[in-house]
Amino acid sequence: MKSHGSALAEDTKVLDPAVAKRLVSGSMALAIVGVVLSAAAAVTDTKRFAFSYLTGFTWLVTIALGALFFVIIQHLTRARWSAAARRHMEWMSGILPACIVLFLPVAVLAHDIYHHWMGPDAANDHVLHQKAPYLNPTFFYIRAVVFLAAWAGLALWFIKTSRAQDKSADFRPTARMRAGAAPAVIVFALTISFAAFDWLMSIDPHWYSTIFGVYVFAGSATSSLSALALITIALHKAGLLRKVSNVERQHDIGKLLFGFTIFWAYIAFSQFILIWYANIPEETIFYRHRWEGSWHVVSLALLFGHFVIPFLVLLSRHAKRSPLVLGAASVLLLVMHYVDLYWLVMPNVDHHLHLSWIDLAGLLGPLGVGAWMLALQAAKSPLYPLNDPHLAEAARIDNP
């Protein structure tokens, strides 16, 4: 392990305390503003806020889940290139414990969001009566507790074990994470799929899609890689991670982002074309609400903003290696991930596109808390896993 340390001796291992303090203070201020605005929005229009907050909450939790998936899959495949990137994804996955608290407004306002099957009219609906063993408030809340506890437990376990590797000269912590990755990925796949069914698809309980969980996962992976690209670019700009990460690693992240952009489009098109071809009214009603009237503009924005433009931009090798171009594409994809979730949620409360400050409040609350948790993670941990068994090899890959 001494060779690892000497090879990376000139690389800064932690953020400058002054910089870390500014990050934490600024993100905490954003969290306070977001919480205050959310409270004001909840009082002003409770029903609108319920749907707006659900959109903001799922935007944050899916980004954190994409980061958790990245951490799990890197250990599962024993990847050697991703030492620094894995640490930054650990920071993002560290948001998941806070999502337990952030879910409370969704739980409190659930009867406004899921009124179709939580309300009294469900008893007179034959379809909902058949789905009642699954779609009922008690089971819904039990599943939510299981999802959130599983995600928080996995995130905290990987973070804790990774920090243990920072302090250990042997590789047993890494071996434990590799052994735990296989069952973790199964838990992850099941929980994210059923959470997508519960929190998003069941808003309209008469509509269903068996590919919906994969669709939400695709957005999670794309948005988390976008956030990772921005973190990497910011650290490079600050002159950090000169050994374990440079433009080559940025290029690799750009390639992954490009791949998952295509994957999201493939899943979105697969879901659409199967429903269009079958032409079953219970299924086509979902797209009819989003293709007619003012929501048509949002549907086109998703097509071009979530796929066509980032696909054409990231197709170039130069774009993936350019901090400016990759950063702009990453910001666009993060924005479009929110638009995607807005497109999934808001037509259920507003059949005509109508933007409101309440939508911004519903986003700023989760965003502020998430940014604060991310800043706390970045401030208290090394910038990369110090004693990772493949750290020196990752440095050689980046610096041939």
TrEMBL record:
The chain crosses the membrane at residues 23-44, 50-73, 94-114, 140-159, 180-201, 207-235, 256-277, 297-315, 324-345, 357-376. Keywords: Membrane, Transmembrane, Transmembrane helix. PANTHER family: PTHR43044, QUINOL:CYTOCHROME C OXIDOREDUCTASE QUINONE-BINDING SUBUNIT 2. This is Quinol:cytochrome C oxidoreductase. The lineage of its organism: Bacteria, Pseudomonadati, Myxococcota, Polyangia, Polyangiales.
